[in-house]
Amino acid sequence: MDFVHARVFLLFFRRCFTISNKELAVNEQIKFKEVRVIDSDGSQLGIVSIHQALEAAYAKDLDLVNISPNATPPVCKIMDYGKYRFEQTKREKEAKKNQKIVEVKEIRLGLSIDTHDFETKGKHAIRFLQDGNKVKVSIRFRGREMGHPEIGLDTMQRFAVYCQDAGTVEKAAKMEGRNMLMFLAPKTGK
């Protein structure tokens, strides 16, 4: 075993087992005969054999990463894969931190709800909508109440009108089994 192959062998074991690979093929995991190589500074080295590409990467003490396996020929880039994964994880965490999780809050109304109870539940729904959450409004029909869905529909429409300043009707009131459901979404322009 000559000096160059011994160095490649040692670098392979040093680099491949310290990096956890999730989706991209790195170094010896690349199984193509020829690849298009992009250097670490972004310049193209052209189409070369996998052995020449690996030697070029190892000469710079970097990794050969298969960034586009479906291209013809596959595109590989010489880069520090550990640094690349770190930056990618950092970007994912930042994106996750910035996204808003919308919860669905539920308000249950009765078919013969009193005025004060109606206003209290309406105020709760308005607060939920102002916080940016969606609201699921439901009425459960019991016994003979099933024969009068129009009363439930009227109650739902009154509730939608009561909450119209804070939200809009995303899904109109509809019977689903013994329940009537309606969804309210917050208004976008606050």
Structural overview:
It is a single chain. With 190 residues, this protein is an alpha/beta fold. It has two domains: 3-96, Ubiquitin-like (UB roll) (Roll), CATH 3.10.20; 104-186, Translation Initiation Factor IF3 (2-Layer Sandwich). Helix content is 38%, strand content 28%. It is built from five helices and eight strands, in the order αββαββαβαβαββ. The strands form two sheets. Strands 2-1-4-3 form a four-stranded mixed sheet. Strands 5-6-8-7 form a four-stranded mixed sheet, covered by helices on one side. A hairpin with a 2-residue loop joins strand 7 and strand 8. The protein is rod-shaped and about 80 Å long.
Number of helices: 5
- How large, in whole angstroms, is the Cα Rg? 31 Å
Share of helix among residues?
25-40%
CATH topology of the largest domain: Ubiquitin-like (UB roll)
| Name of the CATH homologous superfamily of the largest domain | Translation initiation factor 3 (IF-3), N-terminal domain
What is the molecular shape? rod-shaped
Judged by helices, strands and strand pairing, the structural class is alpha/beta
Taken together, the total number of domains comes to: 2
Question: What does the largest sheet look like?
Answer: 4 strands, mixed
| H/E topology pattern | HEEHEEHEHEHEE
